[in-house]
Amino acid sequence: MGKKTSGSWLDLITGLVPSNLISAFSEGETLQVVFVALIIGTAAYSLGDKAAPFVYFHRAAFEVIQRVLGWIIRLAPLGTLGLIGNAVASYGNEFFVPLLKLIGSTYVACALVLFAVYPLLLALVAKVSPIRFSAKSWKRAAVRVRLPVLRRQPPAEPADRPGPRRAAV
């Protein structure tokens, strides 16, 4: 019982606590960073209103980071276009042939899985007719597409209201 095993809970906890907080962030030690964040978050929560400036600062920092990431995401297509332009300028039109072969083979593989592998699995493993399954799934998808349109209809008029009623459309 007193013998220490290599997988004890003490080893687990010791592995979670970083020896240096900055190195844990810079070396990508995700588990250690999450552990430290949980400890800091718990401490801030337990302080209540005393930690309001700390929480306010980090919320503001979060908003700034979200805004910068939004800009990066919006500009990513321009960067991709620049990389493709650089590749075309460096390699010429021969650059597109392997790329188009890759895209074509990916589409062929996806079609093979969709129209051969999945129906075989449905028929042999699930014992379901692939045609009936596809018909029902397409029907459900069509209903999900129509639901938002159906929800936009005006509410029904109350039955006790005097006067002429509108014709239902």
What does this structure look like?
It contains six helices and no strands. It is an all-alpha fold and 169 residues long. The longest helix has 40 residues, at 52-91. The model has no long low-confidence stretch (mean pLDDT 82).
Task: Please supply descriptive tags for the structure shown above.
single chain, 169 residues, mainly alpha, 6 helices, 73% helix
Concise synopsis of the structure shown:
The chain is 73% helix and 0% strand.
Distance between the termini: 79 Å
Provide the residue-averaged pLDDT.
82
Order of helices and strands: HHHHHH
Q: Helix coverage percent of residues?
A: over 70%
Structural class based on helices, strands and sheet pairing:
mainly alpha
- Tell me the major beta sheet: none
Rg for CA atoms: 30 Å
What would you call the quaternary organization?
single chain
Shape: extended
- How many E-type strands? 0
How many separate helices? Answer: 6
